[in-house]
Every structure is written in C-alpha cells, then in structure tokens.
Amino acid sequence: MAHDSTAFIRPVSLPRDRPALDHIFRVTCGESLKTEPSWTISSCHPYPLLSRSTCFVLDPGNGDGAVGYILSTPNTRQFAQDWTEKYVPSLDRKLLPQPDVNGSKAVDDKPTQLLQLLHGDPERALNFSYPGLVDKWPGHLHIDILPSHQGRGWGRKLIDTLMEALRAEGCKGVHLGMEAVGLGALKFYTKLGFSRYPEVLDGGVSGETGRTGGEGPVIYLVKDIPI
C-alpha cells in the first residue's frame, strides 16, 4: 500500500514527543500494562532519554506529533547500567514497586513482577540469562504504530531506518520479544530478515526454538547487522 503523502520518519524529540509516545504506548500495549503504575513507569520513557540516537517516530506531518515509534538501544548491557544509574533515580519513588530480587515474595501480578525486575534487577528483565542473546545480538527494539497508520508500509520503513542507525553505532545484531500468539507479527519480522533465537527456552515443550514457556509465552527473534 502506498505511504501517506505527508507522513515521515524523524528522530525522536524531547520533550516535544513525550505526550505522543505515551499515547501510542497506552493504545498499543497489552491489557496487563493498562493499569497504574505500569502505565507510568514501564512505558517508552527510558529509550529516548538513554539512547536517543536509535529512537525514531512516525510523524503524520500535520502537527499532531507522532503516530508510531521505534525505540532501541545498540547496547543492552550499557542500557541496563544506565537504567539503574540514570533513569530509576529520576522516577517518583512512591510509584516504584519494591524490588524482590531474590524471589522471596510470591507475586501473582505479572506487570508488578516485571516492574520489580526492571527497577531492581534490570539485567534479569532484559534477557541476560538467555545464553548468548545480548552478546551475539546486543541491541534490542520496540516498535508500535497506531491503528490509523498500520498496514501502510511504515513498519518496514521504521525497521529499515533503525537498522541504519544501529549499523552507524557499530551494533552487530538486534533482538526483540513478541507475544507467541502474534502470528501476523512473526510473518512481518520474518520478511524483514529476523529469525528465531536458536535456543530452546521451554525445555522442548513447544517443539519450537526461541519460545518461552509458562503463561503468556514470548518468542524471541534476532537479526544480524553487517557492519
């Protein structure tokens, strides 16, 4: 389908784009994140603050700010360190769930579990435990587009724009996680050169590589970036 005549991709701009980034996240995120404090502290805020050179928005060209974004870091290990040292101290401490790094407390709420990890032990939340993932594919990304601009080729254009930016940063590979039920998304990423992370993550239960087990499984995809 042809691209919109006025829309274009540009680097993210703060604070100008913050309201639009929040809106896109809140429209497109999973239902489990559409509660507070998940909305406020697990959204897209850290990426433009910590890794602005690899963050882009889809601007509709009519002054409305942004209708999509692709947010990334070329170095997940450095991002985790910066998250702890630079991002978390900037947050309202009253919004943060108390970290439970040792897993001593049973928490049924999945968003709270994730937030505890993100703000108490980001390395666990950012997939450092998966063999070779952040070493072979050190970058990671998140991409979301409002329904009004989906199916128009902008997803591919955002990915292509990001790949060039990651290459310029010397990033040799990138990974992402997607819900295992998103077969349409899997087809989209496969067409763009992503493949399944080549490790069995659920003990072979699913018979698939790159797929986690348990409730709400995720499929991890990877893509090499020739430097």
UniProtKB/TrEMBL annotation:
Q: Which Gene3D superfamilies match?
A: 3.40.630.30
Domain N-acetyltransferase residue range list = 74-226
- List, alphabetically, the Pfam families matched: Acetyltransf_1
Task: Name the Gene Ontology molecular function terms of this record.
Answer: acyltransferase activity, transferring groups other than amino-acyl groups; beta-N-acetylglucosaminidase activity
User: PROSITE patterns given for it?
Assistant: GNAT
Could you state one GO biological process linked to this protein? glycoprotein metabolic process
List the PANTHER family hit by this protein, alphabetically. O-GLCNACASE, PROTEIN O-GLCNACASE
Instruction: Name it.
Output: N-acetyltransferase domain-containing protein
